[in-house]
Amino acid sequence: MGIRKLGYVGLNVTDIDAWVELLGRTLGVGVTHAKVGTDEIALAELDEFKYRVALYPSTEDSPRELGWIVDSPRELERLTQRLGDAGFAVAEGTAEERELRGATHLRWFTDPVGYRVELAVGEAKVRVGADRPAGGRGVTGLGHFVLAGPNLEELRELYETVLEFKLTDYRAPGLFFFRCNRTHHSIALAAAETPSIHHLEFEHASIDDVGRAYDRAKANDVPISISLGRHMNDKAISFYVRNPSGFHLEIGCGGIEVGDDWVPHDFGRSDEWGHHHASANPFASPRS
Predict the structure, then answer these.
(1) Domains plus CATH for the chain?
(2) Would you say 114 and 106 are in contact if contact means Cβ atoms under 8 Å apart?
(3) Which GO terms label this protein's molecular function in UniProt (predicted)?
(4) How many angstroms separate the CA atoms of 55 and 20, rounded?
(5) Between 176 and which of 9, 170, 229, 266 could a Cys-Cys bridge form, CB atoms 3.0 to 4.6 Å apart?
(6) Which SS3 state, helix, strand or coil, does residue 101 take?
């Protein structure tokens, strides 16, 4: 399979300082800074690689790029051909963009809801390990994101047919989970009236690390948008906070891995327990 994992996410944000405060005080995530043109951006260090989340100063909060790591230049060429055959215009990333991402090759296209999707070969390892909060390992990496939009069938065609992700499971009438490796899912696609990222997930090493983050969120008055709970499908234990850009940030651990013998199915209800929403759940169904 050409795409190996979710590599990074770039966000346009109106309040970088609030993001840095959330990342540092509550999640124990270190932040470095870099110049892009005349702008100074913040780079969140979730693991030993250069960054996983880039925060760009902006007058609006919106996704800027969604980056996938591809196995090799040969696989990048193959996926480029598949995208072209499906009607997507693929462009080369600039030298500045390749350097920032730590990539040797970078191409991008626009998905059916208008977001920039990048395919990168290579990652830059710049540290032995990220700084961790006292008492645990804390954040260990970037897990997944949920993309919602009105073009659900076109998004499914892109990820499942063109980019060759595998369907893991789903909930009727419009929520689908896809994987590009053994992790239960790296992306979920949902039906919504307007395009958005519903949430982005940060992987943690253990339930104790999730619990400590929960305590810090409470102590720092971070808005907890979905309470602690365990998902029905991937079995992850997590809670969600409302980040400064207005969407959810999931703090989780313990998601399952699946093999080639996995059979996609409707998993019925959203959670084993918990995960009570502070406001209406846009993905709720009569069985939730």
Answers:
(1) 3-121 (3.10.180.10), 139-274 (3.10.180.10)
(2) no
(3) dioxygenase activity
(4) 9
(5) 170
(6) helix
**Distance of alpha carbon 144 from alpha carbon 3, whole angstroms:** 14
For residue 62, report the phi and psi dihedrals to the nearest 5 degrees.
-165, 155
Give me 249's structure tokens.
């940030």
Residue type, 129: G
Provide the 3-class DSSP secondary structure of residue 286: coil
CB 14 within 8 A of CB 61: yes
The C-alpha atoms of residue 102 and residue 54 are separated, in whole angstroms, by 13
Q: Are strands 166-171 and 271-274 parallel, antiparallel or unpaired?
A: unpaired
For the whole model, what pTM was predicted?
0.95
Strands 187-191 and 175-179: antiparallel
Q: Is the pLDDT of residue 31 over 70?
A: yes
Write the pLDDT tens digit of every residue in 246-272: 999 999 999 999 999 999 999 999 999
Instruction: Tell me 277's DSSP state.
Output: B
Name beta bridge partners: 110: 116
Q: Strand 139-149 to strand 196-204: parallel, antiparallel, or no bridges (unpaired)?
A: antiparallel
